Amino acid sequence: MSDISTNGTKLPHINDDLIWKIFVKVEPKTVGRLKVVNKAWKYRLSTPLFIKQNWEKNKHRDKSVIIGIGYPPADQNSQWFVRVMADTGAQIQFSIPFNINGFWFYSLIGSDHGVLCVRVSPGGLNARLIIWNPLTRKTNFVTDEAIRHCSHAVSLYAFGFTHDSMEYRILHVYKKHIEKRRMSWALYNSIDADWVDSGTFESNVQKLGPKSIVNDEKAYWVGWDGVGYLNPVSICTFNLQQQQCYEGNIPDETKSTYHTLTHFKEGVGFISYHNIGFMKQMVVWGLKEDNNNMLVWDKFFKVSEIAIPHNPTLFVGKDILSIMELRCSSGGSNDTERTDILLTRLKFMSSTRDILLHQTWQERVYVKTITMYSEELYMV
Asked: Domain 59-374 has what CATH class?
């Protein structure tokens, strides 16, 4: 018998409310591990209430950029994706969870609350949509409405969740003839798991897109008109919840050489800039809606003497993320053309630029899409 005596110390009891508050602040990836380790909390950590609170506490953390890369001529179809952390430039493995071969094409439609909507196609008529959360590895398959409108002048998708809910919706907008002003739409919702609503609306423009921005259950496109459809005329807004479309004219003072939409300051930004000779200027306008669904234009900031390539551009905090494509060859008739793709972060306050990614393809490829992504626990 040992002469050594031990004094047991009781650990203080931590009530469930305090544990909840701790878990809510934990990053989503760690929450996923807690579900496996602690079965008693598995259900609570999967409830919509916890998922929404966890998103609110972590929505500004660990943002990354997903770059879709592919061959010409299609604007959207990609063969590869590269995922890069927006702060550090670290690359993360990113593979679409689908049994594929080299003949398949992908189009990343959008990302919302950590869930991606991807269109996969072998180039024929059996395309489908994948709704996928890379963190939880959950997937859902949706029929592809666009295969019914292959020859249409406009055929676009938008994807996003409705406000303060676990329900997501997919919007398909299309019209057959470019000269017509009436556009049609079909809407999928995850509650009914089907394309249950459809309708039409009159538009002031001939062409939309191609890039859509979904923010606060509204989808936004730039509407184009004129010769070559190069004149930005209006911002087309579709409310995914109310199923209504609105158009607001783009003021002449906001127009420049190049125009696009982007996520910015938890809202939507309209970018106009030009790089002509020594004249380099970029202006970011904030888009808001009043009680009558009229657009209110608010100038966020103006940057001069900083050149930005005419590629898809995203904004993260006070930095600008942009893509550059550089092509060169040795000049021989049998030499392949090399493509260098760079992801850069421009700190416009200090006019400095950092390279986050530099990757080389020994052939001619193009950047098709660039999408902001953050890991979250939302369900598919």
From this structure: mainly beta
